[in-house]
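note to self: dont lose this again. the chain is below, predicted strucutre after it. 392 aa total, dont forget to put it in the shared folder this time
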Amino acid sequence: MSLIKSIIKQSFIGVVCKFISILILFTVTPLLLSSLGVEGYALWVTYYSIVGWGVLLDFGIGSVLINQLNKNDFNKSSYVLASLILYTLIFFSVSLVLICFFLDQSALFVFLLFIALSPLLSVPEKVFISSAKSYFVDFIQLVVTIIFLGSFFLLAQQDVFSLIVCFVVTSIIVRLFPLFYLLRGGFEINYKELFVIAKKLMFLGKDFFFLQIGAVLILSLERVVIFNYYSADDTAMYDVVSKCFMLILVFNNIFSRGVWGALANKEQNEGNLELFSWLIKISCYSFALFFSFSLVVPFFIDKWVGITVSLSLSLILAFWSYLHSLFVLACNLMNGLELHRTQTVFFIVGVFFKALLIYILTLNIITLNAYIFFSSIILLPYILYVFRFMRA
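---
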């Protein structure tokens, strides 16, 4: 199968699964509000929003694993086993810390324990991505969504803790199936080889790990500053408009992940030149999509939550979201080609200027729109670098 056809297949199935998941969550939101109450629902949303932090606990190993599985077909099982051992050690280490500090907070403890377990359960997902079958990741998430929400509404007692338990138990059980599938054939254990591979994964993964940590910290700081130094109206507008564009970005992430998986898979029989030309066309079409969407967003938000949003904010956030989507695509493209180290220099410089912008934001020297615009410009150097690399 050609690279382009593989990406289209992965993206289409993944988008369909994700769309169904979002539709289900959108449909049941009123029911969850009724069952949990406003405070309970807010608590659940807060817990659920930190699931993504589990990616930090993989220490970048998962990202490296995708490429290494295709480079080492002859001992692929050794790489899988080494990553499972590393994640098991990480899980028990984190669990000891959680027992010491969070055992008395039952809901939070259960949720954090699951996040610590997430990297171990996600190993099959890395195998699927490396095999150009990334849509399995979204299919697994869809199955989890259907089962955990269904089981929650069947319970006699419907509270936040019950919802968290349903989510955690369902996620673990469903994601154990592909893990058992990987382990079904058994492994020939060579301890010396496993030790060497484990060291290799940790060494290669450190760049990804520090990039992940830095990105989460700087984005968290940005949100705190906006909430604390700008008016409630600005904060509310920023939040709801961001959520609208986040929907497109989620689908873009699925597409970008498919690009990484297709490039990492060495069985593809098509060169990269045609793929690069195709991606440039896709980028042009997506610009039209973001621009058109920005014109509709203010009207939609006004009807949805009754908040009046300025067209200028919608346009500037569309510009940021568009460049962010290109940046994610560029990163995944280079990850698939095993050129992710090129991101490090741009990232360090970008973090410096982002931190400077956040500091200026605290002084109220620039408007929120100006801050978003300059934050967008920070992403341009790496995008242009990858563009030139594609044309070379």
